[in-house]
Design goal:
By secondary structure, the protein is an alpha+beta fold. The chain is built from 5 helices and 7 strands; from the N terminus they run E-E-H-H-E-E-E-E-E-H-H-H. The strands form 2 sheets. A 5-stranded mixed sheet has the order 2-1-3-6-5. The chain has a two-stranded antiparallel sheet with strand order 4-7.
């Protein structure tokens, strides 16, 4: 994953090597374009930081805007003019950036109706897995009856659809 910079600021993200080739049709590049060549054109590789934990049933991950990595905060020594010994106090404590680019992801809830549909679909699928136990020639155990009722009650949970407590299937531990 790459970012294309314009005037030192992210302009296009995500940006692919294919897009880079299309943006430079009159230039011949090797099959594997080295990072040094990409950097000359303002294209930098982006490292994805660890993604947060999320529930793909009701949430999505959204990539932020790439930013240069912060190595550390500037010290007084970093901000001292070597000729005059004068300290630029406005710069002390400001970030000292590296040459790498990073991107963070945030978690965003889906629209209410979409999230409700997704949770109901999962619930319906779990119910259908035990439908065969509701046939007239099978005696349904109390634990399965309670499990199926808990599944049907999911839409009435207080956090529905974004905070659902799923019941555990009593068959999953006993099933061969």
């Amino acid at each position: 994953m790459h970012v294309k910079l314009t005037n030192g600021q992210p302009d296009q993200f995500p940006y692919t090597v294919g897009q880079f080739r299309r943006d430079n049709p009159q230039t011949s590049f090797p099959k594997q374009i080295p990072d040094t060549i990409l950097r000359r054109y303002g294209v930098y590789e982006v490292t994805e930081l660890e993604k947060p934990i999320y529930d793909p049933l009701v949430q999505t991950l959204v990539a932020g805007t790439p930013a240069r990595e912060v190595i550390r905060m500037k010290t007084e020594e970093d901000c001292t003019d070597p000729d005059t010994g004068e300290v630029d106090t406005d710069q002390v404590g400001q970030p000292l950036y590296g040459s790498e680019w990073e991107v963070e992801h945030t978690v965003q809830n889906m629209e209410q109706a979409t999230a409700e549909n997704n949770v109901r679909s999962k619930r319906d699928g779990l119910l259908s897995e035990t439908d065969w136990m509701a046939l007239s020639d099978v005696t349904m155990s109390d634990s399965i009856t309670a499990y199926r009722q808990a599944l049907r009650d999911i839409p009435s949970q207080s956090g529905f659809p974004f905070s659902v407590t799923w019941p555990s299937n009593p068959l999953s531990s006993n099933w061969p």
